[in-house]
Amino acid sequence: MDAEPDPVRFLVVDDEPLAVERLQLLLARIEGVTVAGTASEGAAALRLVEATAPDVVLLDIAMPGMDGIDVARALGGLPDPPVVIFVTAFDTFAVAAFDVEAVDYVMKPVAEERLRRAVERARERLATRGEPGAEGRKRPKWLEEFWVSEARGLVRLSAADVDRISAERDYMRLHVGRRSWLINHTIGRLEAELDPERFVRIHRSAIVRRDFVTGLRRDETGRWYARLADGEEQKVGRLYLSNAKALAGR
To answer: pLDDT, tens digit, for every residue of 22-46?
Structure first.
């Protein structure tokens, strides 16, 4: 008879004791799972990872001191890092969460069925780590998707479907057709992470998909504007005029 597989070992990290207790109770209802330990802040979580070598870390994002994103980045530097599942009450961190290769992003209050799905995704990630070519498939060169918040949770958007991106204070707005979503990101990082063959920055607060630009015009004052496929126009910044003209091969 085949031996039972070892249980998947979880570390639970959250600064709210009730949240830690709830996650422990939910994990106890899932077969093949055990809790290796709990921590209430980031530095302690890193020490426990070193001491207990968990397979998966259930990680809150908004914590005092070192937040969950910082913890995940630190874990990513380990030779054999655990899989990360973010569990949080805040939906604006979704892009940052997947930027550090979290396997899932679960909103509070956590439903048992939703946590089960996240655990299965973690199992799948762990199972494919040793496959030939797995390291090469780990991370695409360019940002390929966004996770955005809606009333009932999070929705995955393909980067290829985004028409344009505009800055709004500390957030970025993704425009897809007539709909738009806010994400917590900076325009500088988006410019660096998006495929330059597909997207171009034409203003300090605007990035557009190249094939969404239908024309360029200059007004009587010498200012340039990009005509967009939805009928709108986007002012071209002086520092980015060469980017816009390159669209027309100029």
So the answer is: 999 999 999 999 999 999 999 999 9
Whether pTM exceeds 0.70: no
Whether residue 120 is contained in a domain is answered as yes
Residues 177 and 221 reside in one and the same domain: yes
Burial (Cβ within 10 Å: 0-12, 13-18, ≥19) of residue 242: exposed
CA distances from 199 to 161, 192, 202, 213 (A): 11, 10, 10, 10
- Please give the structure tokens belonging to residue 128: 């494919």
Query: Is 74 exposed, middle or buried, given 0-12, 13-18 or 19+ CB atoms closer than 10 A?
Result: middle
H or E stretch including 151?
none
In-domain check, residue 134: no
For residue 1, being part of any structural domain is answered with no
Range of the domain at 241: 145-247
DSSP letter for each residue of 18-50:
HHHHHHHHHHHTSTTEEEEEEESSHHHHHHHHH
Task: Provide the domain count of the chain.
Answer: 2
Render 58-115 in DSSP notation, one character per residue. Answer: EE-S--SSS-HHHHHHHHHTSSSPPEEEEEES-STTHHHHHHTT-SEEEESSPPHHHH
Task: Supply the CATH number for residue 46's domain.
Answer: 3.40.50.2300
Q: What is the pLDDT of residue 136?
A: 44
How large is the C-alpha radius of gyration of the chain? Answer: 22
